[in-house]
Amino acid sequence: MLTDVELVTQFSAELGHDYGVAKSYVRDVPTQALLQIRSFTHKLTELLARPKGITFDSPNLYDRIETLNQRRVINVRTTRALHKLRGDGNRGAHPEKYHLTSEQLLELSEKSIEKLLGLVASLFTQVTANPLPEYRFEAFDSFAGRDLCYRAVMESDPLAQYLVGMSLKTKALMQREQEQALAELEQEQQSRGDLSDNTFKKAEYWFNQAADSNMDARYESGVALIHGYSGTVNISAGEQAIATAAEANIANAMALLGYFYMVGGESIKPDSVKAQHYLQLAAALEQSEAIANLGVLYYQRDDLEQAKHFIAKAAQAGFPHAQYHLALMLARGEGCDADPIASEQWMAEAAEQGQIDAMLARAQSMLNDDNAFGCDLSQAELYLREAIKYGHSVPAMIELSIALADGMLGKIDVVGSAALLKLARERSNTQEMSVIEPLWESLSLQVENVLSMTDNTDELASLQRAKELLS
Fold first, then answer.
1. φ/ψ of residue 2, rounded to 5
2. Backbone angles phi, psi at 234, to 5 degrees
């Protein structure tokens, strides 16, 4: 009986190698495993197109999958499976932007490998013209992680050093996001902050070790300097390192350098022409943030049709911020005819991927829907709590406070409402404060009125706690 790697190798020798590499990274470098899966998916579209004489007009993976579907090379089920793997790869590129924990990232990479294997099995006869042989899935192991560490330390292998750095950076980013989520104890926040700081320092060390030979590492060392991974910020030196990596055609470096030329940096003056140049180069390599920023650049030039074109491309590539902005453009009819149904669909997609503004917008839509009375609004509550946890969103705090005070979520919770309103007040700007003040007075009055009417011991304790929070 074949192993899973042997099965994929019979399907395609090149893809068998790539599958083996992706699988080997799952336990120790799951982000790299997901990126390898995305690359595998890209190559698979080429393999499927070749016998039909199909040539692709675009390097965009979304477009390629849709072309294969439209030309009936693949069925709806395969189309969905390819899009799912494309989305998993996007999450692997920036797991912190999708609010993934280390455990969730590992689970995602394991499931993606299993889905990839299932896809290969379903396509085996179509591609090879042979019946599907019996095979078994071999368990994941941690050999690749040990091998990477050995090569990084003992052989000074630049690629291994870069990958060790990336593993540490991913871990640090997820640690930092958890640290920045609302914590009850300030002391706990500080102790956890030390954890991510130390991991960032380790990541920068390995990027610096590889930076002379590996341009991806040079780019990451530049990012480390700009963000002060070691505790010291050096923006100019960071920008220079990123520019050097961009000249070596590193997609992420070209995307970030294009952004710097768009908004300006410490040593980089805004230059719309150079911004477009580098963003287009990165976009040609399917860097989704570059595609989205091209849309922003055209939006700033008031070329709404081109803006919508590129923002839609980035949205289709799975970039949550582009999905949110596409939803807004569709709602307003910017660069296109207004399409409220498509707008709502993209807003929902962005919210599902954890985009803060989209989660707030979706929750507000659910709570303010006249037909929602009596319905389960737990998803709206979840979105608001996620927006508060990861985005410290004052509008989300206000919305959730109102919903809890009014009993819109199934029960009245004046303590939770008061706590959120107090937190919103501490973090608000002048405009937000003008909304909070009347709510503060209304909730205080509500608490006082109920206090004077109830003799329930538990209710009195809760109301007294709410009164203290509002005092």
1. -75, 150
2. -140, 85
